[in-house]
């Protein structure tokens, strides 16, 4: 195909953030809003981005321009923590973390030993992401390698930027969900060889959390990390007080929960720790020093009664934070709804989450937390063309509030507060239309 045939042109109002920041006050100066803009895409990447008037002469007459004026085009949302095999158990009633795992999660995850079932649910899961405008996610599979094969196969069909891994879990769960240190190593290794950097797919070494891994298994996770230093590490940390007490019982020789991961070499760049609701001072410092990232999962933390994540402290400590929906303890795939809850979580702690900060965390900031800001997160030339067309006035109430909001920041805040999957008008992955709201 000639370059001209693979060129695509999108017109509309565009909003993105041009650079990563260390303080939330810097976000506004990095914000870019182009009321009448043009995005040119070639071979799935941003070829040119700017004002319509400045760029329109580059559009060959044979190209049909996708005209989204009246809508707002933003970079695809980044979900930094989610469990695909828990899609079918969202909204399981009544428990906090440890009981919730035993009663609801483990029986559900058992089904993913069936490769065909895993394939069906992978398709369902990806559709849910796309209809909610999420174009990149860091994803837990189950202990079964089949679950990860199924997800990666489905994601590779639309060339989605996705990070995932097989759960490593060799104790404190039902027998039917346990691997062992050796098999978890060998299975993870085979998956890394098959999928890591295969197209846009990336692998995360995924011990579920310290209580379900023996020291021998964490040593195997460390070995994988040493053998494949450019993979990711994805796990849970300090979500629930009972969980923390349990880790201290299981690993008495360690200096707290995070020290378990740290001593096995599992902190560092491309290490993403979900929750971090109850961190001690030394743990904030360790995350900061090692360049580790946090996935802030507001709907999950509220739903399981885990507690309130201290976002302000993360900024103070210069720790990268992204937003996680944490399906199925989280209650929505939708990033706008998740940001709405994030606002309330920090409001309860006397901190105000601005619309710009929320937008940052769910796009470029989330990409930064995943170590992917060089390839996704905004419309910089050369980046991968994953984006969402938002409909700011999808309901009568949204229309009313949007019309009586004057500034961009107010309009964006209303979109976050009142938005949901109806706000997602189109989703593009790799420059191609992959979801169309009907
Ligand atoms: Zn989780």
UniProtKB/TrEMBL annotation:
Pathway: Purine metabolism; guanine degradation; xanthine from guanine: step 1/1. This is Guanine deaminase. Pfam families: Amidohydro_1 (PF01979). It comes from the Bacteria. GO terms for molecular function: guanine deaminase activity; zinc ion binding. Its cofactor is Zn(2+). GO terms for cellular component: cytosol. Keywords: Hydrolase, Metal-binding, Zinc. Its EC number is 3.5.4.3. It catalyses: guanine + H2O + H(+) = xanthine + NH4(+). CDD domains: GDEase. It comes from Atlantibacter hermannii NBRC 105704. Binds 1 zinc ion per subunit. The gene is guaD.
